[in-house]
Amino acid sequence: MAINLNGYRITVLCEDIAQYDFICAYAKLLGADNKITKLPAYNNDTVLKLYAKAVSSYRKYATQNIILIAMIDADEKTVNERLRSFDRVLDEEKYRLNQPTRLPNEKILLFVPIRNIESWFYYVDKGNTNGETLKGSDGKLISYKNQYANKDVSVFAKKLKEEICVNSLPENAPSSLHHACNELKRLNN
């Protein structure tokens, strides 16, 4: 899937710097120039709080070359539960009826890393190990936040695009990363 983001204005709604830096690095690898704006969110609650307003703004200017990217950590939830959270804040009625809240041709992308974005970094860094499901000796899912704090995330974006995704994402990749790749297909509509 060849995606070229040159000429698009991109608005990013995410909960932390690592997410924003990763999205920007990946977008630039796809040809995005410097027209990337970050909305002021700092945790998953503010991402959800600002999402409906961001979608409304997107829809107001949808005839222009714009993209809205929202990212939120799944934390202890599933990707589907987090996606439903986006649906709920966007349209309560459609949420209740389990109907889609985004039109197929809308360039609104939702990324939901299991636990946090660092689980993606772990996968890119370690190769064939899916960090979404690894548990520590205490039986809890392992968090990689501290392991990848203050790292240059553009290295992970570049390796993901140029080495891992070249022939499509391997089956053993994190499920949330597979979901993200499917979201990227919205850019070809």
Would you give an account of this structure?
- This is DUF4276 family protein.
- It comes from Candidatus Methylobacter oryzae.
- The protein has 189 residues and is an alpha/beta fold.
- The protein has a single domain, classed as Rossmann fold (3-Layer(aba) Sandwich), CATH 3.40.50.
- 41% of the residues lie in helices and 10% in strands.
- The protein has a four-stranded parallel beta sheet with strand order 2-1-3-4, with helices on both faces.
- Strand 1, helix 1 (17-29) and strand 2 form a beta-alpha-beta unit.
- The model has no long low-confidence stretch (mean pLDDT 89).
Task: Please write out the topology.
Blueprint: E1 9-13, H1 17-29, E2 36-38, H2 44-60, E3 66-71, H3 79-90, H4 92-96, E4 108-111, H5 118-126, H6 153-164, H7 175-184
Parallel strand pairs: 1-2, 1-3, 3-4
Helix pairs in contact: 1-6, 2-3, 5-6
Protein name: DUF4276 family protein
User: Biggest sheet, strands in spatial order?
Assistant: 2-1-3-4
- Encode the helix/strand succession as letters: EHEHEHHEHHH
**Average pLDDT figure:** 89
Query: Could you state the oligomeric state of the chains shown?
Result: single chain
Features:
single chain, alpha/beta, Rossmann fold, four-stranded parallel sheet, DUF4276 family protein
Please provide a brief summary of the model.
With 189 residues, the protein is α/β, with parallel strands linked by helices. The chain is 41% helix and 10% strand. Helix 2 (44-60) packs across helix 3 and helix 5 crosses helix 6 (153-164).
